[in-house]
Amino acid sequence: MKQIPGAAGGLFVLAFLLSAGCTSTTVDEFRQGETGIESHETVVILGRRQVSSYETSADFVECVGDRLAQGASGLNVVPEQEFLDAMFPWFEPRTAPLRTQDLERLMVEEQVALTMRDYGVRYIIWLDGFTETIDRTGSISCTIAPGGAGCFGFGSWEDDASFSARIWDVSNFNSVGTISTDATGQSYVPAVVIPIPLIARVEANACQRLGDQLKSFVIGS
Length: 221
Prior knowledge:
By secondary structure, this protein is an alpha/beta fold. It is built from six helices and six strands; from the N terminus they run αββαβαααβββα.
């Protein structure tokens, strides 16, 4: 059997490690109206949870909110749970507005209108989506023997994180745009005695790209 020289073998392993766990991310933006935000105004990011088959992850919602708040141009973001508590029960999954017309009707409620004003809410951003494993191959087996234990094998899977954000302008009850992101990546777990997971950070990449695009969108020209 042909041997790979030490240096070449090291480069081969390095190349494999660098290629493993890589992700590919695309972002699409559809603008329906002009945007802009003042220093005293805030943004609320909420996850859609009306669908019975899945719920938009609260961790992903928090991640996008943190991304919008970062940097010198960071926005004032109201934490999701704080807003939901203040608005209870109007933004619970069964009662949350599905359209801007629903929000406009909801503003007739005195508590809703006062809370919106107190927080200075200019935009509500609805996040909808989830991450799923779409392909899994290989296997790993582990054994325990008197001389020790070990795992052998190779496994891989592909993850897809697909999320969309719909931006509502509370000042005029209009939907001003939609941004969607899709991140895919292949993860690997080679095991020679010890499993070494090489994970594609698809949801983290989707959060980063979506958050940056949302910040640019809200700030406007």
